[in-house]
Amino acid sequence: MEKQEVLDTFGKMIASSVRDATYSQFAKIENGSLNSKSAKLLQERIEKFDNDQLESLRMIVRDTIDSTIHHFLWMIEQNEEYDLIKYTDNKSQFVSLRDTSDGLYGELYTEDGWIEKYSNYP
Fold it and tell me: Which residues is 86 bridged to in the sheet?
């Protein structure tokens, strides 16, 4: 697997398994389909929001999710004692995601970024 392919695969996982899964949970709270006690309480409060307030809440949730992912990737980028790696099939070699990218945290953004390319909630 080529280094860029490894990075793209990781980006797809971040976009779908972290970003979209988290935002989807918020959407389920918003529409009342998540059946936990706390979700029901939140949904009752969200029902009282007007359209402008609801759109502001959606923006805050998306921004918070993106910021959390950004800060996690920044932490990995800045701390050389930690790395994200992809092993080859036989686990004899690995690819460093930090070394593959010129800035993991920046891979999220831009028109070619992971959010635009892979997320269901761009």
Answer: 95
